[in-house]
Fold:
Amino acid sequence: MNVYTPILVLGLLAFGFAVFSAVIAPITGPKRYNRAKVDAYECGIEPTLQPIGGGRFPVKYYLTAMLFIVFDIEIVFLYPWAVAFDRMAVFGLIEMVLFIVTVLVVYAYVWRRRGLEWD
Amino acid sequence: MTFVEANTGEAVVFWICAILSVAGAIGLITSRKAVHSALWMALTMINLAVLYIANSAPFLGMVQIIVYTGAVMMLFLFVLMVVGVDASDSLIETIKGQRWAAIFLGLTLTVVLVWGIGSALAGVPAVGLEAANREDGGNVQGIAHLIFTDYLIVFEVTSALLITAAMGAMVLAHREHWQPKPTQAELSQARFLGAGHPGNLPGPGTFARHNAVDTPGLLPDGTPAEVSIPGALKARGDVQPVDIEDVHAIEEADSL
Amino acid sequence: MTNGQFGFFGTDPWGIVIVKVLGIFALLVLLTLFTIWWERRVVSRMQNRIGPNRVGPFGLLQSLMDGFKLALKEEIVPKGVHLAVYWIAPIVSATMAFVAFAVIPFGPVVEMFGTYTPLQLTDFPVSVLYVLAIASIGIYGIVLAGWSSGSIYPLLGSLRSSAQMISYEIAMGLSFVAVFLYAGSMSTSEIVTAQQPVWFAVILLPSFLIYVTAMVGETNRAPFDLPEAEGELVGGFHTEYSSMKFALFFLAEYINMVTVSALATTLFLGGWQAPWPLSLWEGANTGYWPILWWLAKVQIFIFIFIWLRGTLPRLRYDQFMKFGWKVLIPVSIAWILIVATARVVRNEMTISTTQILLSGGIVIALLLVASWLLQARADRKADAKEQEFAEAQARPFDAMAGGYPVPPMPGQQAELTTRRATASTTTQEAIDG
Structure:
């Protein structure tokens, strides 16, 4: 047996449970049709036909997502570095400081241009 | 080139994940809805990760999931921002002959890649990652050893790539503020000093049959309170009239 | 197949694997039912109420009955939904919540039905990353639920939720680095072993605090429960879900709480190892006893979750993002560098503890002074800007300054020509009605 096989077993059990729950509800529950019930919930008013802003969203989220990717990749490099840190010692530290400082340059830039402020 | 025989478990995993990831890739390019494409892409990426793990590269597999789920999420958000929640592709060619050019270039790239990688790997003995992992005492240690010694320059240059990405997002997506943002205290002061209504406006629809924000609340004398309706609904022309029957019903209920 | 250093993992016979899987599944379901009840009771006490006490002893069966009730409720599927994705979302959420638990260690190697096996489903060299990876797939459940509902509140809630989770995932990921550095491994069982004399919560206190903060943000719990801020977004991403599909989201949320608590226990509180007075007893860390210590530690975190919910008001969204990006991330990075430097110094040079502490103190003092100077400078600048703004506002706007038509400066009010002024008043009136 592989170390990953137990995960598969747990995953199958959880998946089966989730599918069972999702499927059982329409069977066990009552069905009373009402036109108002199947409308999207909007505090009681007729649902807005067109979503806000033509269905578009503030581009602000994009900046956050992009910064997330940048830091995510930085973290991904930090992990093997941390695990193997004791072998690399001073050399490893200097390498990583260089890397982090470079990434922090853009972080500082975004901060200064108020890219981190949410409004 | 020598091959290492895969055992049954590995073969099963390969065939399931390979089929799923190719299916995801096909779904990605054939879906009309941009959001569906993003989801298919997530499926492909996760299956590739499973393949990496099955090939004894667990670190790469996990990183693939962590980074690519985030990346696909960003794509998802980008779709929502740029083309809208329910956007679907239009199939009109804007550049003449684009489709044929794309097919031709795609095939050329495939041939070049297969030929390039094939000739680069010919003669390299395939020992499998297990042997490579054993060398440094583990998969993660092995990767760390390679990144932080042999490929040091590449690693440091990656930071330049990250800088470019964040900088680009900043330039494209950031809107400059010309005025200082009013603080909560300033907003509240403005509300009380101004001519408007300082407190909460009367709530809508309280006594109406249609218990909703688009029906005005009634004042004690039975007249509808216009201020209780949000301005946006008025502008949209979505205001429901007050049913006079409701007013009578309330009066009757009060007199009982 | 044996795995070198992970001797016991991957060698269990099928029977043991199935027992362990069923055990984890049952534990998670029971813990969820218990936590919902416990949360309602504790919050009630904090608010001078009694809470559910009718169904079963102390109302313990309340959440179970609520679950049955949900199953017997009508499932309403609104007409605007994207059906396939609408179905997938709760299933993804719930499945990923369960699966993340596979690598949590509950105890040492024990004898189970005649076989020696660790009290942990499985482990491999990157199992902490596995939890992170599964958590990031779990976010999809929330985002897809919001998108597929075809309604505005869920969409807003899910977007907020994804922005929030990715922001706090960075802080969380950074807080792991110091742990990996000290443990020299990313596997949960080895991290627990590495905390033999002292727990990492003690030597890596800042990492611990950052993780605890980030884990509350990551699970969308109060005071960071903005994705389901009732006053603003109704129910957030699950507004359009009802019956068992809603129950699945609810289940996933509570399991995720348990998972992040278990991870905190594993990484910082010594996992299943007995705490100090108990560890004096020889048998404390053998047999099945460690499950008890593990449960107690996890329950402490769960109680903190509940306590926070009963105490703190919800943060404003901009404050929340500011805290994540401007406080947690820079502090984590600085802390990683400090830890790495300290470790190099300890490994490479012969230096006494006093000297380390002294230099650490000097560094902290310098940082404090620098931050104070920066703050003072920022304040001065803000004052100057405000003054400038006031002056600009005081100056009348000259549309032809310097002989060319120019737009108003920031803060200046453009005087409208008569025709435009009339037009804009009319629009304003149309909006006001």
